[in-house]
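>> received
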Amino acid sequence: MQTAQEIISQSEAADDQVALDYDARFLRRKVLTTRAGAQILVDLPRTTSLGHGDALRTSTGVLVEVVAAPEPLLQVTGPDLPRIAWHIGNRHTPCQIETDRLLIQRDHVMADMLARIGAVVIEVEEPFTPEGGAYGHGRTHGHDHSHAHGPDHTPHEHHHHHHQHHEH
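>> returned
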């Protein structure tokens, strides 16, 4: 089995393809089966979000293009799409933003909320390529809004130095 440890933004023709849905494109170590039936072990140094059109280069130089596979989604339309998009983003839900529609993963709670604010929601099955987040490559990791701290600083150890002000 070939091992792929390198991701490239594709510029040359791929030898093979692998179709992965949104969740499957977030990986570190996994065996994938390509369209041609080959098995490759993806073994990356850290968990990585692969984008539609990225490619994996195997140890033997084979280039395998990553393709967004069709998956169950909600197509969201409505008279005030920017406001609807704000409500989706406010819930940290990955969203594919197009001129006249939004696409999100199927979720009945989101569908109910969107219907209440006037959106038209229909179920579709197509590739999902949501917008990249502000903090990295296309993913928001859960709902943790804590700030990164150094190894010797835990989030709850804030030391404040108070200065005495003497009135004259």
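>> Residues 71-127 form a domain with the Alpha-Beta Plaits fold (CATH 3.30.70.790).
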